[in-house]
Design goal:
The complex is a heterodimer of chains A (315) and B (242). By secondary structure, chain A is of the alpha/beta class. In chain A, 32% of the residues lie in helices and 30% in strands. Chain A starts with a strand and ends in a 9-residue tail after the last helix. With 242 residues, chain B is mainly alpha-helical. Helix content of chain B is 79%, strand content 0%. Chain B is built from twelve helices and no strands. In chain B, helix 6 crosses helix 12 and helix 8 crosses helix 9. Classes of the chains: A alpha/beta (315), B mainly alpha (242). At the A-B interface, helix 2 and helix 3 of A face helix 1 and helix 5 of B.
């Protein structure tokens, strides 16, 4: 869906982004991470044809943005960090205007508006004036204008900015609802959001791409690639701890929450040994109730390591 | 050009839904009412109806230029202030459609607020005679002058980041174009002819005011309108490279 090659954007002598090369496949949900001023917004604005790149190429669905930006814009829905809302318009009127601008045929506009309102839980707000809506609702209207024309590519710049925790959860549900219908590129400061919403991450620092891949791949590339396996068992033998510790690759096995009927074990390993753990527990006569693998490094620690800042320090 | 129509319709709705449009309309009518009474009707000696009508268009031309600057200041500067320009710029809409849509909305609103002023020429009927041709020509002149002033205002709004700055830039450009004629009086041939011809008011509006249509005046106002809108479009296009 997106192919960026050696993409650069200069403002005067200053490079906002430099030699970015990445690709995003159709249907992927990709997170763009970076500190303030790292070049995230510039990257999104170039992809949205709001800015022309100084050097390099970007193809969206096979179309080069500098050659036919109008064709590219038909395929894009963009939500900037500040939703582009006209405060004097009603929600329905505004979404209708956005749909017409994006060349939705007039006869289809009411249906598309209703569909976008349903997806963003705005149906009850159809006749409300935007200027009188809360911040959370305005953010939803911003998202609705980005999807009203059913774009192939959805670009969201800080969609959860300024929302309270409850609204962030709602926004997370809305974003998850978009999976499968659009290719989505999200920029966010909320690492939990990115971690829970995205398939893959692009990490940008000082205008350069310093990492890309899944959370586990990034952790592995940073030497934080250990895995933690969490298992819940019933009816364990007395020597189970020693047997688990003896498995190749296991660095530590400890009980996280002992219970009367079941026990939860946390097993740290240097590789993916879920199959070996499952076989061992079953052969020991345990009832294996749950087995879950996680990367041991948090997205926060990966992000901080990639952007060369000590964890817990100011961003 | 369908997008230009959608933009014009939305923008015209914004004039009608917000207070600023009504405030400008009320101020324009009030100002013209006062000027009409003071200059056109306020004379102590008897005058011909055509002189009074000419005075009406003379005073109204100043009101039209002022209203144009105030109406156009919001067109693109407000979009940039609110961040809504992103909606237009990320949609499959060409810059010329954005500029044209904005300009047409302001022109439409200027026509709307000019229509009620028709009662002033009709007042002349109470004590005199009225030439429909003179009235129509005067309003055509106002329309063309308003169109040129609005196009200059659109350019000012495209250049500025805030509405206030847009009004200052546009006002400066319109006043500058008015002053070209007095400036021409201070220079010698052939420069004075060029400056007289470029001035927006002294040479090109008085014929309309007196009920005469000269093709050169019509062409002049249309050319100023086209040129200002063309430059506005280029400014918007260039912004993508920044």
């Amino acid at each position: 869906m997106i192919e960026a090659n050696q993409l650069s954007k200069y403002f005067g002598e200053r490079a906002a982004i430099r030699d970015l090369t990445f690709a995003i496949a159709s249907g992927e949900v990709v997170g763009l991470l970076g500190l303030n001023g790292a070049g995230k917004t510039t990257t999104l604005r170039v992809l949205s044809c709001l800015l022309l790149p100084t050097a390099g190429t970007v193809r969206v669905d096979g179309i080069e943005v500098t050659e036919d930006p109008y064709a590219v814009r038909r395929k894009i829905g963009f939500l900037p960090d500040l939703p582009p809302l006209y405060p004097e318009m009603t929600v329905g009127g505004y979404l209708g205007f956005a749909a017409r601008l994006r060349q939705v045929p007039s006869r289809e506009v009411p249906a598309r508006v209703a569909e976008a309102e349903d997806k963003t839980a705005l149906r009850d707000m159809h006749r409300e004036v935007i200027g009188e809506l809360s911040h959370g609702y305005r953010q939803r209207v911003g998202l609705a204008q980005a999807i009203v024309h059913k774009p192939a590519l959805l670009i969201l710049d800080e969609p959860a900015a300024g929302l309270d925790p409850a609204q962030i959860v709602e926004m997370r549900h809305l974003l998850r609802g978009l999976r499968g219908e659009h290719t989505v590129l999200i920029s966010s400061h909320f690492l939990t959001e990115i971690s829970q919403t995205c398939d893959r991450l692009l990490v940008i620092h000082d205008g350069e791409l310093v990492g890309q891949g899944t959370e586990a791949e990034l952790a592995s590339s940073m030497g934080q690639g250990g895995r933690t396996i969490e298992v819940e068992v019933r009816g364990q033998p007395a020597d189970i701890a020693a047997r688990l510790a003896a498995l190749p690759g296991v660095t530590r096995a400890q009980i996280r929450s002992p219970g009367e009927a079941t026990t939860v074990w946390t097993i740290s390993a240097s590789a993916d040994i879920r199959a070996e753990v499952a076989r061992l527990l079953v052969s020991c006569g345990c009832d294996l109730l749950r087995l879950e693998a996680r990367t041991s490094a948090s997205l926060e620690s990966i992000f901080m390591a990639m952007t060369h800042k000590p964890a817990g320090g100011p961003q | 050009m369908t997008a230009a129509w959608f933009i014009a319709r939305r923008e015209l709705g914004a004039y009608l839904r917000t207070m600023s449009g009504y405030v400008i309309a009320a101020a324009a009518l009030l100002m013209q009412g006062i000027l009409f009474n003071a200059f056109a009707l306020g004379s102590e000696h008897n005058r011909l109806s055509t002189e009074v009508l000419s005075q009406f268009f003379w005073t109204y031309s100043g009101v039209i230029m002022t209203a144009s600057v105030l109406l156009s200041m919001r067109l693109l500067a407000e979009e940039r202030q609110l961040g809504t320009v992103v909606l237009l710029a990320s949609s499959p809409v060409r810059e010329r459609e954005i500029v044209l849509g904005k300009f047409l909305s302001a022109l439409g609103f200027l026509i709307l607020i000019t229509l009620p002023s028709i009662f002033m020429p009709l007042l002349i009927l109470v004590n005199g005679k009225l030439s429909v041709g003179h009235v129509a020509t005067g309003y055509l002149g106002l329309f063309l002058l308003g169109s040129a002033s609005l196009a200059i205002g659109t350019l000012g709004s495209t250049l500025a980041r805030s509405q206030l700055l847009a009004a200052i830039i546009s006002g400066g450009m319109v006043v500058g174009m008015i002053l070209l004629h007095p400036l021409g009086a201070l220079t010698q041939r052939p420069l004075d002819d060029v400056l007289f011809a470029l001035g927006i008011w002294h040479q090109h509006f008085p014929p309309f005011q007196s009920g005469m249509i000269h093709l050169r005046d019509v062409v002049y106002y249309l050319a100023v309108t086209y040129f200002a809108l063309f430059v506005s479009t280029r400014v918007l296009e260039a912004r993508r490279w920044r």
